[in-house]
Specification:
It contains four helices and ten strands; from the N terminus they run E-H-E-H-E-E-H-E-E-E-E-H-E-E. The protein is α+β, with helices and mostly antiparallel strands. The chain has a single domain, classed as Acid Proteases (Cathepsin D, subunit A, domain 1, Beta Barrel). The strands form two sheets. The protein has a six-stranded mixed beta barrel with strand order 2-3-8-4-7-6. The N and C termini lie close together (6 Å).
Length: 143
């Protein structure tokens, strides 16, 4: 079972923060290769695993760096607003140990006032087992 484990100093205060890559989906990469078009780049981001988030959310400027196009528009609720329209994307989240999971629920949103660039939501977490070991300050994710 592919997995990664990371120890996070002061896990209680910082939360489950990890670096991930946001990359174009395999389908998009294959379509672009078939057409001899340039492949969008992967972007490394600081993310937080968020079991309260239905979908994975990434800052809009990260999507611009990757250069992928939206596949739709969705309305999201945040702690401070309701019904915010955001673009939705198909992409892959690549965790440590090259553990990659694709989603069509990636949403671009401002994430203002945050020290992170991405929230990894349940659209990704539903594919595996998340272990939050507060005592040892360790987070493990297996698929």
């Amino acid at each position: 079972m592919p997995s990664f484990t990371t120890q996070i100093p002061n896990l209680y205060k910082s939360g489950p923060i990890i670096e991930v890559l946001i990359s174009p989906s395999r389908l998009l990469v294959q379509m672009l290769k078939d057409k001899n078009q340039p492949i969008p780049q992967n972007v490394k981001v600081l993310s937080m695993i968020d079991t309260g988030a239905t979908s994975t959310v990434v800052r809009s400027d990260i999507i611009e760096k990757i250069g992928i196009s939206p596949i739709g528009v969705v309305k999201i609720n945040t702690p401070s607003s309701v019904g915010v329209e955001c673009y939705q994307y198909q992409a892959a989240i690549v965790f440590p140990n090259n553990l990659a999971i694709e989603t069509s629920d990636l949403i671009a949103a401002p994430l203002q006032g945050q020290h992170i660039q991405c929230l990894v939501g349940r659209d990704i977490l539903r594919h595996g087992v998340l272990i939050y070991n507060g005592y040892a300050q360790i987070v493990t994710f297996s698929v």
